[in-house]
Amino acid sequence: MLRKRIVPAIDVLNDKAVKYIQFRNPTIIGDPAELGKKYTEDGADELIYLDTTASLKNQDLKIEWIRKVAEQVFIPFSVIGGVRTIDDFKRLLRAGADKVGVNSAAVQRPELLREAAEIYGKQCVVLGLDAMPIYNDENEIIRWEVYTHSGHEKTGMDVVEWAQQATELGAGEIICTSIHKDGMKNGYDVELIKLLSEKTNVPIIASGGAGKLEHIEEVFTDGKADAALVASMIHYGDYTISEIKSYLQNKNINVRF
C-alpha cells in the first residue's frame, strides 16, 4: 500500500509567505525558504508553493525565491501559479522545483499539458484545480465548477470532466482546492475528492479546509485522497507535522516517518 503524504502549502506573494482565506485577504507569515526548511525538518513528505503574485497580478514568474527554497529544502517541491508556457516549465525546473503546476493556462490552452508531459514527463506536470460547488434549489450540490486566476474567475467547466481531460493530456497529479473550504478549517470537500479519486487514475492531493486531525483522517479514509495539503493547521502552530502523522498512524493510516 502506498503511504499517504502530508504536504504543507505555502502561498507566496511578493516574495513573502502569506496565508489566504478563500483566496483573499493575505496575511504575511514568514519567509518561503525558511518555512519550507522548518516543515521539511518536521517530516513533510513534499511541499507546494503557490506563486500568487504571478497568477493574480499577471506578472512574470520570479525565480530568485525558488532558488533560495531549493538551497534549503531537500524534499520534492512543486511550484504553481503564473505558469503559461513551456519555457516557464523549464525555468522553474532549472531553478530547483521538482514539479510544476498549471491551472489557468491549461484551461485556456489544454495542449500545454501534453507538450509539458512529452518534454519533462508526466511526473513533473501537476494540474491545479480550483473548484466551487453548484447548488440546486434545495441547496444540494449537483456538480462543481472550475475556477481560474486563483479562484477569481469562473469558467463554466465541470471539474470532473476537466480532470479527466487533463489527465488524458498528460497531467500526472491533481491538486484540488475547494475554494469555499479554503482557510475555513471546517474540513475538506470529501465528496469531491472521492469523486476525483474514483474518476481519474492519477494521485489526488486534497486541498482546502483542514482544521483538525479528524479532517485529514476523513479525507484519506472516506475521500480516498493520496495526499492531504495542510496550511492553517501548521502555519499558526495548532499542530506539527509530526503530531499529524502520529495521529494518523494510530488510526492505522500508512504514513512515512
From TrEMBL:
<dbReference type="InterPro" id="IPR006062">
    <property type="entry name" value="His_biosynth"/>
</dbReference>
<keyword id="KW-0368">Histidine biosynthesis</keyword>
<dbReference type="InterPro" id="IPR004651">
    <property type="entry name" value="HisF"/>
</dbReference>
<comment type="function">
    <text>IGPS catalyzes the conversion of PRFAR and glutamine to IGP, AICAR and glutamate. The HisF subunit catalyzes the cyclization activity that produces IGP and AICAR from PRFAR using the ammonia provided by the HisH subunit.</text>
</comment>
<comment type="subunit">
    <text>Heterodimer of HisH and HisF.</text>
</comment>
<dbReference type="InterPro" id="IPR013785">
    <property type="entry name" value="Aldolase_TIM"/>
</dbReference>
<dbReference type="GO" id="GO:0005737">
    <property type="term" value="C:cytoplasm"/>
</dbReference>
<keyword id="KW-0028">Amino-acid biosynthesis</keyword>
<dbReference type="InterPro" id="IPR050064">
    <property type="entry name" value="IGPS_HisA/HisF"/>
</dbReference>
<feature type="active site">
    <location>
        <position position="130"/>
    </location>
</feature>
<dbReference type="GO" id="GO:0000107">
    <property type="term" value="F:imidazoleglycerol-phosphate synthase activity"/>
</dbReference>
<protein>
    <recommendedName>
        <fullName>Imidazole glycerol phosphate synthase subunit HisF</fullName>
        <ecNumber>4.3.2.10</ecNumber>
    </recommendedName>
</protein>
<keyword id="KW-0963">Cytoplasm</keyword>
<comment type="similarity">
    <text>Belongs to the HisA/HisF family.</text>
</comment>
<dbReference type="GO" id="GO:0016829">
    <property type="term" value="F:lyase activity"/>
</dbReference>
<dbReference type="InterPro" id="IPR011060">
    <property type="entry name" value="RibuloseP-bd_barrel"/>
</dbReference>
<dbReference type="Pfam" id="PF00977">
    <property type="entry name" value="His_biosynth"/>
</dbReference>
<feature type="active site">
    <location>
        <position position="11"/>
    </location>
</feature>
<comment type="pathway">
    <text>Amino-acid biosynthesis; L-histidine biosynthesis; L-histidine from 5-phospho-alpha-D-ribose 1-diphosphate: step 5/9.</text>
</comment>
<keyword id="KW-0456">Lyase</keyword>
<dbReference type="GO" id="GO:0000105">
    <property type="term" value="P:L-histidine biosynthetic process"/>
</dbReference>
